[in-house]
Amino acid sequence: MQSLMIVALGVAGMVFGWFVYSKFIATKIYQLDPHFVTPAHQFNDGVDYHPTNKFVLWGHHFTSVAGAAPIVGPAIAVYWGWVPAVLWVTLGTIFFAGVHDFGALWASARHKGKSIGALSESIIGKRTRALFMIVIFLVLLMVNAVFGVVIANAFIGTPAAVFPAWAAIVVALAIGQAIKRGFNLITLSIIGVIALYMSIYVGSELPLQLPDMLLGMSPNASWIVILFTYAAIASMLPVWMLLQPRDFINGMQLFVGLLLLYGAVLLSLPEISAPAFNSQIAEDAPPLLPLLFVTIACGAVSGFHGIVASGTSSKQLDKETDARFVGYLGAIGEGSLALITIVAVSGVALAATPEAWHVIYEKYGTAGAGTFIKGGAQMISNGWGLPVAISTTLLATMVVLFAGTTMDSGVRLQRYIIQEWGDIYGIAPFRNGIVATFIAVTCCLLLAFGAGGASGSGGLIIWPLFGSTNQILAGMTLLVISVMLIKLGRPARYTLIPMTFVMITSCWAAVLKLKEFYLAGNWLLVTIDIIVLITSVLVILESIAVITKFRGGGSVVRQEH
Prior knowledge:
The chain has a single domain, classed as Hydantoin permease (Orthogonal Bundle), CATH 1.10.4160.
């Protein structure tokens, strides 16, 4: 029954967030204007800027920001007990993630669809823009390089997920063409989901594996090269052709997956075997404060979301009023996934007894996506009677597809950043989409193979910095939104309070990590960590200077139309 209580309290909080808090933010703080001409209409080029149905855009935004992070983060954080994880996911979704994602989307749409880094120049200044874009590029580099490794490992560990993962691309291409020709969206959604789940069944019966030493590379390295080749091509296609329909279908697939997982809780009422607060913490484990708030990023609040919201989603926003549906409801979708992940890795479906649970969670960081797949598959099997093998393939495919859509968007976003650098600094080759994509993919592969050798796992080397760097970026994004609100003469406390909390906890975590890297003699991570910390301090100081100057007699911020 504890699992039912967790679900009931968490869902009740998110319902309040959607129907009450987000409506207040939309009408009183961001003051959405249904008549505002969005960048999707103003710069419609059919490739990156394209007015999009809000349901399709929600699917793109949600699956792009979700990835594997709202599964991996909560699955790890339950190490400290399920109560802290549930509280942070629920409160973080309502008061942090929703306001952050929604705000980044709105602010970007008001500034010609610029990325949060580029638009910071209009709101704060040129120095802030340069600092911001350094952090953004580092976060994208980490996400893309690591997700390539995550998907490759998933393909090798769960060969049954290979066929449905690639079949989803074919289904998405077909649906993209059908949407373009005006076919009914509901009918297409049903057909797409059925096709996807049929491919999952086929995959469970037809596991696929790459041969050893394909083109002189191990299967892991081969998959990484294949994935980045695909991501490069996908990032240059028009958004309506592959990105939107693939993300939309994945969103529908997740919706079905959430129904199965939440339904399994109602049908089987699993008990919780994890402790509310874990008293058996290993001596070398990191402290709950502040590491909880950077371990669970996606699912509570994440700087990567601001990159997606201002990078791709704002360029597809049909009406400004759709920003609440896409941004805030996207955050709720991710919070719902994080919440059910906590149940899946805390219950008897994963570990029948508290003693068995402690064996799995003997050390911090031993759990992850695999733990969720194992616990969630057994929970679905117990509740719905599905064979464990099919349930496992279903959840493994869900994780792979999420990571894949994030990688698609991540490479496209890296291309945007490089093209923006070309515009800002007058570097003509950088403005070319093909050149920018080549640079983006090359950087990821250099990290993957340059730092990781023949295995291609180099991204994992700088991954320990992702948590604090990502959350510092979230704080910086909230700071930019806050300055914009102050200049508009609107209340900024609803973004400033979350910003302050996120900045304090993430910088605190970064300092702890800096000490850890220093003692380990890892000078690469020490250098990057110092750069991120100095950058965040400088952005804060620049923002304070702008606010002080404005309140001393500045003018209202100019909004670009």
